[in-house]
Amino acid sequence: MTDYRPPLRDIRFVLENIVDLKELSALPGFEHVEAEDVYDALAEAGRFLSEVVAPTNHIGDTTGIARNDDGSVTVPAEMVAAYRQLVEAGWPAIKGDPEYGGHGFPGVMATAVQEMLTASNMAFSLCPMLTTSAVEAFQHHGTDELKAVYLEKLISGEWTGTMALTEPEAGSDVGALRAKAWPEEDGTWRVQGTKIFITWGEHDMADNIIHFVLARAPEAPPGTKGISLFLIPKYLVNEDGSLGEKNDVECVGVERKLGIHASPTCVMAYGEQRGAVAYLVGEVNKGMHCMFTMMNDARLHVGLEGLGLSVRSYQLALDYARTRRQGRALDTPKGQSAQIIEHPNVRRMLMTMKVNTEALRALILDTSAAGDRSGHAANEADREVAARRMALLTPVAKAWGTDLGVELTSLGIQIHGGMGFIEETGAAQLWRDSRIAPIYEGTNGIQAIDLAVRKIPMDDGAVVASYLAEIEAAASNLVDAGDRLGPIGEALHRAVGELRKTTDWLLNASPSDTLSGATPYLRQFGIVAGGYYLGRLALAAHGRLAEEDDPWLHTKVEAADFYAKQILPQAAGLGDAVSAGSEQLFAIAGDLLD
Ligand SMILES: Cc1cc2nc3c(=O)[nH]c(=O)nc-3n(C[C@H](O)[C@H](O)[C@H](O)COP(=O)(O)OP(=O)(O)OC[C@H]3O[C@@H](n4cnc5c(N)ncnc54)[C@H](O)[C@@H]3O)c2cc1C
Q: Mean pLDDT score of the chain, rounded to an integer?
């Protein structure tokens, strides 16, 4: 199986030309950050992850995890060793608050590292990813007393975190959850309830596991307005910081599943015996607000799973296409066979993988940088603009990214022919692992609704309008640059024009039409955003080509050109699907589904 090759140059190009890392790292709070240091650190992260974590991917998939009779869960020893090294090297703490031992680097750097971590071993990556997302919420909403006990160890990764929302009757509808909480006289709480599908709910990679659990306080109103967030440690912590008694928290089962075999998906029983000792995070009945801080971070990083897996799948497919010989290409001499990469359709599949991953990376890093600016921009107005940009793009990054993850890793199998279906090549694992990402962290259907119902109407459509205006400006810049960039700009103008039409249609549509058109709209949005970012990267490369005739820079123009001709035109077709309305789905004389 091909070793993972961290795409450092591609990542850097996006950080330089889309994110503007130099400007970002000059913002208040990042004064200690030099862009060049970030690039050096990313190179070191890439080396570490490809050498230490990537080799555990296949082992994790084939060995899986085991739940023991005492309820403990064992993960492959190679992963335990890799996790210890990850923590020792300080990678989980990149963006953590320096007051609690973090390195205080921009979140966009952590996102770039997370791409490489996910590509190295997605099942493994979920543990630090969820911990970092939990830290995000805890840092914002936890009390100083609680933070003094838990935050440093969570930031370092010495202890890991979970996000426990789902119950058998409360999946997409989180408001239906029933776990209950009650206060004790000493100021602590007790929680009782069963949660299902809890990722890394129990394992042996860390000494303590800190569960962030949603439950209902006494007399809480129904639905999401009556949910509170609690911190429930697996082991209680003594006053001197040492680990004390085991809490009333049990893993009562682990799921067998299609992919991410090395990530324990646990049924967790909290407080079955006497009530689990719990600490309130944020205010009573404001748990959903706290959880959203956690989920926004996690959603972006789940979108990133589509990217990481697709990049690794592309590398495997590319290597295979260069070595496998089959059939004759048009110019292959008689009696000889060609490398399959010489066949136009194989090239098309590879290029489809390559350009989509580049587009997706730019979208995800841009969204992550908006998150940084929402916390660090110099004034409140800029911080608010950035927060809204992040809110707009997060559901697109999550859903378009994870749909692409499934499609591109499937193409990776296709390029291998029959060998892709055989586990030995590793292509199948990437596809199996990718399949969960459109489902968890809010299904992609729910993301589309979030985009259409909540995000597009923000500020009466002004947030989306300013993003579309940026795309139009980039298209004009491409047209003005002329040469090979002109037609790319024209294609982008046409596509963003279609997106503007459907956006206007959605903003004025009935609730049922909005819900019916949401999914094709999100797809259209993702496709156009992808063209926008590739166009900007092509412009940047074009500028640099005037100084140096580097073939790698030419590939950035070629990527935008391929995308403009082969993928952007799909945006127009999707417009009809959006505006077909709910009548097509419901008001039918004969029901298609009967
Ligand atoms: C491997 C794995 C790991 C997980 N990890 C965690 C974790 O760590 N913590 C945690 O709390 N949960 C976790 N989950 C749970 C996951 O988040 C849920 O499975 C997911 O939110 C969907 O809920 P559900 O399974 O109940 O599906 P349902 O909500 O029953 O959805 C079924 C289908 O109906 C659609 N649907 C439902 N409601 C609507 C609606 N209002 N409008 C439109 N369509 C709708 C959905 O999009 C979906 O297609 C995990 C799940 C898995 C499989």
A: 96
